[in-house]
């Protein structure tokens, strides 16, 4: 009985330093991926992430590290934030040629 009580108390303990380190590792991986996206913005995006985010194959390794370091719900949340930020930037940009919808690759599966 005493052994069960001791082990259940050990499981209920929250190690905030471990959580903090994991969160910082997630943020670092996220920043590396989005930095790669900005650097490779002139390349054609061929890979598909969550929430419709497209990215070039050069960023695939950093995307995998990002998805590994962060919880899936966080990845989805950060991707949504990034897409929203880019959408607002595109709409507010003074360059007329960049306004309007993004051009998305056409899938050949929908051809008649």
From TrEMBL:
Transmembrane segments: none
Protein origin, superkingdom: Eukaryota
Gene3D superfamilies noted in UniProt: Cytochrome c oxidase, subunit VIb
Assigned GO CC terms: mitochondrion
Any matching Pfam family: COX6B
UniProt keyword Transcription regulation present: no
Signal peptide residues on this chain, from the entry's feature table: none
Coiled coil (UniProt feature): none
Alphabetically ordered keywords of this record: Disulfide bond, Mitochondrion
Location in the cell: Mitochondrion
Protein name: Cytochrome c oxidase assembly factor 6
């Amino acid at each position: 009985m005493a052994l069960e009580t001791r082990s259940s108390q050990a499981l209920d303990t929250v190690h905030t330093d471990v959580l903090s380190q994991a969160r910082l590792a997630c943020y670092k991986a996220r920043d590396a991926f989005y930095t790669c996206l900005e650097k490779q913005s002139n390349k054609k995006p061929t890979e598909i992430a969550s929430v419709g985010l497209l990215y070039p194959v050069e960023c695939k390794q950093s995307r995998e590290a990002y998805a590994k370091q962060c919880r899936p719900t966080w990845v989805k949340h950060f991707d949504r934030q990034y897409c929203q930020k880019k959408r607002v930037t595109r709409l507010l940009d003074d360059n007329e040629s960049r306004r309007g919808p993004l051009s998305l690759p056409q899938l050949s599966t929908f051809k008649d």
